[in-house]
Amino acid sequence: MSKHLKFTPGNRITFTIVLSAVMIAVSSFITIPTGTKSIQATLKLIILDPGHGHATFMQGSMNPAIDPEVHIYAPAGPDVQQYMSAIERANKRPNNPTNWKLVLYTGADYLEKMLADKKGNAVLISGNNSKKSNYIMRSVEAGFHVIADKPMAITDFKSLKKSFEITERNKVVLFDPMDLRYAVSNILQKELSQIPELFGTLQKGTQENPALIQANLHHYLKGPAGQTSVRPAWFFDVEQQGHGIVDVSTHLVDLNQWLAFPEKPLNYQTDVKVLSSREWPSTLSPSEFRLVTKTENYPDYLKKYVKDSILSVYSNGEMNYTLKGIHAKVTVLWNYKEPPGSSDTHYSLMRGTKANLEIRQGREEKYKSTLYIRPHADSDIALFEKSLLAAQHILQQKYPGTEFIQRSKEWEVKPGQIQRTNSAAVALSYIQAKKMPVWEAPNMLAKYYTTIEALKKAKKEPGIRNQ
């Protein structure tokens, strides 16, 4: 039974991309036409060594603030081929096609060439994570803004800290876009946690019952067989991709910080304490590995993770820590394949002194992220419903049409009209301003300090590593 709460109140030579040996020729430039002239823009984009689908995230549509000519510097091979092919498909799609003009350099000296050419003012880095520390530092030293896909660091915190120090001297931006901040359910969870009449204040929690919980379930194989996005073989090498506890958990640690201490700078030296962590492997058979990577055999660098032909990857992890004395927990899980009809899922919990705010994305929610408000068992329900009405009215002023629907002992939050931004727009705005909010850089350092310290602790405590 459900109950709604009601409140009245220039010409270029054409070149077609061919994914062949021609494309990976040594030290060559390849130009892809747009049929349009370059325009004045505040962002001249450089793509450095793309190896992940997020390398295209600034190019989903055309933006007058972004120059349509984009320079790519990368080693020749399948990673850059996939990026080029993705942009070609976007340029040729029937609805709202893009018109990016790509200039590709694949010489062995691609990094030094990029630094010397200075063909843009912002470098986007999304690929092999073991290379990012060097790419980031060299780029900010050269005076480039950097948009770096997470994780910016998988082991080397000192290098990242030094890179942020360089950005201050060179007046450039270093930013890792966090998409989960712009999900509707997360926005509303944050909004409701700021209404003390409904939520109260955030509890301190305990290690057994944390006040902040974030959990994600991911899958290596998505969609029907043969239609999945291809993952590079190095994705399964924790020395190149990173352990799960320092990879996708970056988003979850960020959410805990963003929800609990919005727009407040954190000090990683005094505000973060990792209490415990553990990690355990996911496994793939040779046939599963071939399907996901389109690679026939395990590369040599993966063979140390193979036993009896089964590949083990430390992609699962859990950490318990405190953030300014608030107990928090993050869990990341990877399975091989999505069950029919399901998807990756996200879970989030904020424990307040008056109510809990919980996001679930399971079968009952049809795998759609859904926010619930649950009062404490000893709450005065009549009084709580008055608080619900008032909170609903507050949200409706910002997001018309938002309503709360009672589902047994909790209320589901039905989103109304939410005009929201995205991480690409935020990155662009930071570069245009040539600065970020004062809390962004220290909170990025706090985030990576948390994940890297959690990995260190998991490795130091082998007795709990595989539980």
Outline of the structure:
The protein is of the alpha/beta class and 467 residues long. The protein has helices at residues 78-92, 110-117, 132-141, 157-170, 184-193, 196-199, 249-260, 268-271, 286-293, 381-398, 423-433, 440-460, 462-465, and strands at residues 2-4, 29-31, 45-48, 69-73, 101-105, 122-125, 145-148, 174-175, 212-221, 272-284, 306-307, 310-323, 326-337, 345-351, 355-360, 370-375, 403-407, 410-414. It is globular, with a radius of gyration of 23 Å.
Layout of secondary structure:
Blueprint: E1 2-4, E2 29-31, E3 45-48, E4 69-73, H1 78-92, E5 101-105, H2 110-117, E6 122-125, H3 132-141, E7 145-148, H4 157-170, E8 174-175, H5 184-193, H6 196-199, E9 212-221, H7 249-260, H8 268-271, E10 272-284, H9 286-293, E11 306-307, E12 310-323, E13 326-337, E14 345-351, E15 355-360, E16 370-375, H10 381-398, E17 403-407, E18 410-414, H11 423-433, H12 440-460, H13 462-465
Parallel strand pairs: 3-4, 3-6, 4-5, 6-7, 7-8, 9-13
Antiparallel strand pairs: 1-17, 2-5, 9-14, 10-12, 11-12, 12-13, 14-15, 15-16, 16-18, 17-18
Helix pairs in contact: 3-4, 4-12, 5-7, 7-12
